[in-house]
């Protein structure tokens, strides 16, 4: 650069991108320097993922320039050239589950020449070396599908570095990790940063931005709003930049409303035993109550929530709603009892991609959309329009394909769908996954309204913001309920219980995966 400052590893300027009538980016810019950990934040639909797809060569911008280490970006489609400059670790895996770790690492580069046979032993050795070099403790012969999310992300990072890239984009990498996994990921990133690797880090968890990043860029409504050192920007100033609204000092993480008193049990889980998950677990949620079921990845809390919704058969124990038994392992029995579910993985269990927002939002209530099993398009549209308004879903319209929505707005469609049935018991698994700070508050308020109308909600999550919206929090550790918190718990107390460091019998058995 002319002024003598170091050449940025990545520099995008004047980037615009349109999808039909939607402007995803308008004259946007970003500059990432070597060894920097740079956060990109913004509300759902602000344009972050679109920028990532442009920075990684997956999409071409309509206008703008892109340079890596001072040189123009490779030609569109020259995959090898892009890979040597930048890589992205997504929330969703890009490694192939049926192949081994070694095969994934050297996919399409197994042998020196197209006609030379692949030397498997050599391949495994090289994979072992590569993983060792980056301190990734994963067996090269393991099937990728059997890795934990954390191990899989480490493999993806090692693969990116092995292509020569010194700039890595991490798109919500912590969304599926528990607290320990996040700590290990951050340790690794700091380690690599010291070796000169630069990161662009996308997260809706602003605390993570403060913990990990040195610089932050905010996008709002498709445009660049500011870039500043993280240390110079208060939490409030950051949220204001994201929302464009002045807050009156209110804390986004404050409790949503006063805790409610329960009146009569609506959901009763008694002595539940799920194979390899939990043993003799009991839990109840009263009418008018929101209960949190917290726990780390291996705690079994997600499976218990899913079991309430009929997704797992129990070896022993009962589940009942309003005194009526629910057959475990039967989704239709759970539905008939009035259980609604926000599933953990919106991609696998939540959405029908390629179908419209309206169709997805009304999938669970087709019986209300017309007489005698018919579905009236007008009624579907009206129903969907109400949900779009109610949950503040950012979409050009009800007829838009859900695949065209940003991640956070897709999540809102999943929540909308679960709420549409007016469930007596709503089981919401990590309901605010990928949702921005403002929308998070909004979604949690909607979930609380389920309880306010005399129904019950079980929020299965390890997100403190989600748990703060609950009247009570039950903490699971390795298949057992080990603690229960009423109002007024502190983050430290809850995290300690989740980590198994509270005074519990299970506390000695902690590490389950990773290093
Ligand atoms: N393939 C597409 N077709 C149509 N519209 C799209 C497409 N991809 C993105 N958009 C639109 O562009 C806008 C920006 O979306 P983008 O995914 O970049 O947002 P984001 O900031 O990553 O949001 P989130 O935090 O929810 O992931 C949104 O309005 C989105 O609906």
UniProtKB/TrEMBL annotation:
SMART domains: AAA
Keywords: ATP-binding, Nucleotide-binding, Repeat, Transport
Family annotation (Gene3D superfamilies): P-loop containing nucleotide triphosphate hydrolases
Domain of life, per lineage: Bacteria
ATP-binding as UniProt keyword: yes
InterPro entries: AAA+_ATPase, ABC_carbohydrate_import_ATPase, ABC_transporter-like_ATP-bd, ABC_transporter-like_CS, P-loop_NTPase
Name the UniProt record assigns to this protein: Sugar ABC transporter ATP-binding protein
Species the sequence originates in: Streptomyces vulcanius
